[in-house]
Batch of 3 targets.
Target 1
Amino acid sequence: MTDADVHDALVQTLPLFEMMRMRAATTARRHPRLGYASEDRRAPRRWVNLFTHTRRKLGPGDREVVSPNNDTLYSNAWLDLSAGPVLIHSPDFGSRYWTLGLLDAWTNPFAYVGRRSTGSRPQCTLMHGPDGPGRVPPGVSQVIAAPGHDVWIIGRILADDSAADLAEVHALQDALALRRADGSDAARRLDTGLDAQEPEPPPAPRFLPCVARGNCRRCTRPCAGRTSRASSAAGGRCPSRCAATGATIT
């Protein structure tokens, strides 16, 4: 393998790793009803398909993401669509600005739900991955196809500094919900494969296998070239086939 191959593999996989790192750092260890994702509190298992909420405005000391805005409250969720579509329920936001930005595993925004794009009425958005939407239940407002099985929802709701307005926004956050087509809670446990507290990226023998295990098998991007180099750099430990395309990863 040449230096160019190594460089290309790192360039192609670093966004995937960063998304995995953020997923490990921002998903919940404990579900409010179903309890902890793992009995071992040090384990990297987390809850996905579950909203978590920031109840205060962020400031200069908040460095989890680059340059967060400080006029909205954030609601965050990571979707795993490998077990089927997920319904995103959102309440009536009235005249208040709100948005749910949807990012793929490469950090690319691919769709938005919110005041400017879908309006502020109560709505139900069906999100599906490469396997398709399946039977669309009654009451769905829009259907969005994700590029892969992994989606990061970054929600922002406009808020001012008064206690009364913050309380209203907290109620709107609590009304956001993720469910299956049958109405059941969409939450599921996921092994993130990472210790989110590690200050530096892991060494190469763990870096690329971690990326491959967590994301490469779920993408819809061509496996040839891009992931074959990543697989080679990882010592051949990428999954054998891409779940989206069926292509062999060598």
Target 2
Amino acid sequence: MLDQLSVTSWLPSVFLAGNAAVLLVLQGQEGSLSFNGAIRTLIQMEWGAIIVLVMSVIIAAIAIQAFEFEGLRFWEGYLRSRVLNGWARIRIASFSKKRTRLEAKCDELATAAFDDARRRALDSSGISPAQVATFNALEKTFHGRPLDDSDRVALGGAADLRWPRFASPSLMHDWDVAKLKLAEFPEHHRVLPTRLGNVMRASEDQVKLAPGEDLEGFMIRHVDELPPAMVAEHGAYRRRLEMYCGLIFVLAALAALSVACLWGKTAEPGWRAAVPLAYVAAMWVAYKAAIASAIGFGQAVKEASLWLQKHTIPLP
């Protein structure tokens, strides 16, 4: 049975059981609390206590793996509770506004970068009249002014012009950063209530599916057609994503347990505050790690979709 449990459930379960054991030992200490003393106590445990601890790890691993997929869906923002629906609507509205602001910022930074590139190009001596005409036509496009027939002809040289090469590197950097942030959002009608969900949906919406095909089983259906390296990369990011999402729940449970175990230690106010806050901070770190893994996971799925388009029957 144990070989059915994945590393994504083993690691969080060991972390949960180990930290819970330390917290329970700390609760039983008299006088000032000692982390080193708690570790020494655990090391000196009798075999019966060790067996209980091992069984706790196994049970925790089974429970974590059983709800691994649902946990991931929860942090993506697929909330089935009526209690959380109101919160979800508020978050969706907030993310929608943020996406709108990012779109406006991208347009603003693109215009600023182009204006800078045009000024630099026109001030240089190595630019041809045709390039000047293209810059002038692009300038009208960026600022929303109408084009005449000569402008439309001049725009034909926009690809060869490659205007960003004339722009300030700092302005191009600001524009690139804004585009990266915007790329983490799906279309307005597809926004979810969590950042993790938006990052994953933004990538998943770029996957080309065959008629009647759903996204959830995309990799499962095509795993035999894809290169082993691509499948391994997808699996690695998927395991990290599941592990970090499970770890968030574990850390939340440990934060609550630390409050329960240390609440009666009135002589140790630093411990009472620091330990729960450390677990809460670790939750934030785990969530950020899940987002980073989701970006890699989404990229792997997109690459798989592109590979299938090039090497198998064309997808729509």
Target 3
Amino acid sequence: MMYGTVGLFFISNQIVYGHFLGIHALQIVEGFSIARRLREAWESFLEIIVTFFEFYPVACFSLLYLLLFLVKKAIKKKRQESFSSLLLSFL
């Protein structure tokens, strides 16, 4: 029974993917370069981000809040630095 299941697995891989070891063997057989893998991973990542905001537009508000918080923090820090330098100039 087990040999029949494994055999059917290999046969189905051959039919579907054209190789007995399946889709993972294609990655090894075709010899993807690291640059190509990284490029494809980056493209997939960007596609996931676009899809995320397409289906969950509310997430834009959290990013907007984070952006505004960081800008406010940077402005506050700059004011403190300029105030500190102003005080030090009088001493």
